């Protein structure tokens, strides 16, 4: 049996000098992520604005969110939505975001 050489087992060393990344690649990555989140948030707001009251077709409504939290004050605090609905400002009808509900039903 011949001698086993270390270089046959160990992975070849990566020459880091040969690896180049664009300047500010990390900042760019963070920025892209933030921009995508911001875009999604704006799209959601625009979608909500267009939702009409099922009774009077008014788009004037209040978005009610009921939240639960983990009871921690200060760092570590987190809260989540347990229920949300709209109340029409014109006729007082309470209604759900059906588009969101359809997505929830589809996932089940
Ligand atoms: Zn209404």
Task: Considering the chains and any ligands shown, give keywords for the structure.
single chain, 108 residues, alpha+beta, 2 domains
Structural account:
The chain has 108 residues and is of the alpha+beta class. It folds into two domains: 22-51; 52-72 and 79-108, no CATH class. It contains three helices and three strands. Strands 1-2-3 form a three-stranded antiparallel β-sheet, with no helix packed on it. The model has no long low-confidence stretch (mean pLDDT 89). Zinc ion binds next to loops.
Number of helices: 3
The H/E string reads: HHEEEH
Q: Percent of residues in beta strands?
A: 15-25%
Instruction: Note poorly predicted spans.
Output: none
What would the principal axes of the Cα set say about the shape? elongated
Write down the domain tally.
2
Helical content class: 25-40%
Output the structural class: alpha+beta
Mean pLDDT: 89
Strand order of the largest sheet: 1-2-3
Radius of gyration: 26 Å
Strand tally is: 3
Topology, element by element:
Elements: H1 6-9, H2 25-50, E1 61-69, E2 79-88, E3 94-95, H3 98-107
Antiparallel strand pairs: 1-2, 2-3
Nutshell version of this structure?
By secondary structure, this protein is α+β, with helices and mostly antiparallel strands. It contains 3 helices and 3 strands.
């Amino acid at each position: 049996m011949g001698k086993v050489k270390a270089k046959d087992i160990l992975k070849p060393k990566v020459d880091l000098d040969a690896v180049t990344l664009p300047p500010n690649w990390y900042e760019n990555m963070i920025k892209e992520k933030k921009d995508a989140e911001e875009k999604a948030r704006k799209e959601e707001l625009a979608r909500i604005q267009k939702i009409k009251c099922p009774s009077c077709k008014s788009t004037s409504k209040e978005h009610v969110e009921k939240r639960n939290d983990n009871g921690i004050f200060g760092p570590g605090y987190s809260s989540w939505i347990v229920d949300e609905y709209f109340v029409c400002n014109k006729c007082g009808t309470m209604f759900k975001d059906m588009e969101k509900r359809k997505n929830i039903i589809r996932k089940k």
